[in-house]
Amino acid sequence: MKCENCSKKECSKKQKNDDTQSTSVDALRSDDGSEEKNEFDTLANAKILLSDCLACDSCMTLEEGARVFQQNQKEFFRILNLNKKCDTSKHKVLAVSICPQSLPYFAAKFNLSVNEAAKRLCGFLKSLGVHYVFDTTIAADFSILESQREFVQRYQRRNQEEHALPMFASACPGWIRYAERVLTNLVTSHICTAKSPQQIMGSLVKGYFARQQNLSPDKIFHVVVAPCYDKKLEALREDFYTALYNSPEVDCVLTSGEIVQIMEQKNVSMKDVTEVAVDSLFDDLKERDVVRHDGKRSDGYLEHIFKHAAKELFGMDVKEITYKALKNKDFQEVTLEKDGETVLRFAAAYGFRNIQNMVLKLKKGKFLYHFVEVLACPGGCLNGKGQAQTEDGKPDRALLAQMEEVYAAIPVRLPETNLHVQKMYQDWLEGMDSKKVQDTLHTTYSAVNQTTSSLDIKW
């Protein structure tokens, strides 16, 4: 689609045509000659393709574009090099959090088990100078639990509040950006207020972990490894920033593909890296085997919320969910029937074509769903544009199929069974219904700078 702002401002997103282009981080390199050469200099200037950024209005402002480009390998290595110097005032504790949808990419690409991939990726990052490597699954636990509770509350007040239902998932930043900039408050008022796993992980690292380590949040440099470029934009949101400490929850996002670029520049093979156990947020514990949530290609918000709502609202235990594909495999629905009546109707809408159809139905008053798991990428998070892409920017379907097999084989852990999460609700967040839970695990979404009517979008 084309944004009206593109005629006024330089577009930072490559148009979908045959003229593949790349943008180098050299564009942000200082010309004053003051930058010191170091062992990471070549790596820091590796080119980053933003050609598949899903920024949903098809362009970014110049300021946003500049800030996104600062989230690259160069910034990562700038911190690593500062840490090598003796000036302790500039020293940062470097923590990297890895999204569970990134691990199948490394496992499939390097022909490893997912547990081997996690440990070798941890080993590689620590060989560069990273202090802690975390798994973001615990952050997804919090996000899912808060989303479940919010859906039940919205359902219970559906007859009193016009915008209580439907509820839309909030974990995908491409979808959120599109909703806020294009779809207006007609849609944003329906978005779940629970933060995404990435940003909850930011709160855990800069809040809980910082306190445990007796560190000021601004002394931690927090990097997230994610499947897509839109996670960079998400990290820049003003509501995910702690003004008191002049510190964002997430300082830098690197895609899975960018990590592989670093390996290639270093001439390092994943198979040659020493395995190191992934760190835990709790004392000196280490993570055990990789686990995931329900859901074939994502964190499984639909499945978890559906089962929770069935139990809480209707006293029904749902063990298995049956998906019904509608117009295509990326638009599927799930229903719950009781006494011959459909009491819950959920949908999964992946990709912008399905999102557009969903929104048009909402505008026409023909929307039947209580909840929709919305993801900008066709195929879900595993198909994020920061991984599993061929050199010409197209999906690597063979690799993606392997990734789906790897992901499906990972054991599922219900967020309700995570004892660390339950303890943190009480000890750190002051109870499940506290103001601190709202401040730490939730945010708000609203229309901003509408650039074009959703009815004028060309697909």
TrEMBL record:
Its main location: nucleus. Gene3D superfamilies: 3.40.50.1780, Fe-only Hydrogenase (Larger Subunit), Chain L, domain 3. Residues 1-19 have a biased composition (Basic and acidic residues). Residues 393-449 form the Iron hydrogenase small subunit domain. Transmembrane segments: none annotated. GO terms for cellular component: nucleus. It is found in: Nucleus. Residues 1-35 are annotated as: Disordered. It comes from the Eukaryota. InterPro entries: Cytosolic_Fe-S_CAF (IPR050340), Fe_hydrogenase (IPR009016), Fe_hydrogenase_lsu_C (IPR004108), Fe_hydrogenase_ssu (IPR003149). Pfam families: Fe_hyd_lg_C, Fe_hyd_SSU. Interacts with LMNA and binds to the farnesylated C-terminal domain. Belongs to the NARF family. This is Nuclear prelamin A recognition factor. It comes from Eulacestoma nigropectus.
